[in-house]
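Quick one, T. Sequence first:
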Amino acid sequence: MWLEKFADLAAVQDPLWQQAAAGLQPTTVPSGATLFECGDACQNYLFVLAGSVKIVSLNPDGREVVLYRVGAGQTCILTTSCLLGETDYPAQGITEQETTAMVMPRPVFKRLLEGSDGFRRFVFGQISDRMARLMGLVQELAFERAHVRLARTLLATRGDDQVVHATHAELAVELGTVREVVSRLLKEFEHNGWVALFRGGVRITDPEALKNHL
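Structure tokens:
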């Protein structure tokens, strides 16, 4: 049952929520699909069951910044904000792998928010959790130097073979900076013997040195 991914909702017993939950339909979207664009109207509230969606903001100069990701057992705070405020999306949502979600139409969301205490607590709990994470991102961008964030990103995204399959441009999007900065820092890391660079990726050769760099 899909509610196993959402323990807080599984415990909600009021008839309004249970009736709505029974009527929701799943959808599966392939990797690389755009779920919404900047300026799109928000029509549905999604409960992600599997996969991952990255929420990307596009700066006026064309530079992308990954704000956060929505994984299994989560909902999108940006979608929630747009539904509550009746505004259009200010960012993009793109699947990073095949993603399955339960779809709740906008009218059902509004009806539950007004009539189900349990559903309302869930929604605002999700907002609180995401806001805390976004504040952490803001603090990183404002106060943490780029080379520290790059070292942390490499360690967090490496595979068992110590390889990070990402281009310099993709890493720049993750860090909220430009490709030239990432390329310069990676060259420094390579000069120090911490990584080895190859086309389309980075191999970590001294993970302990990177950890000590944090």
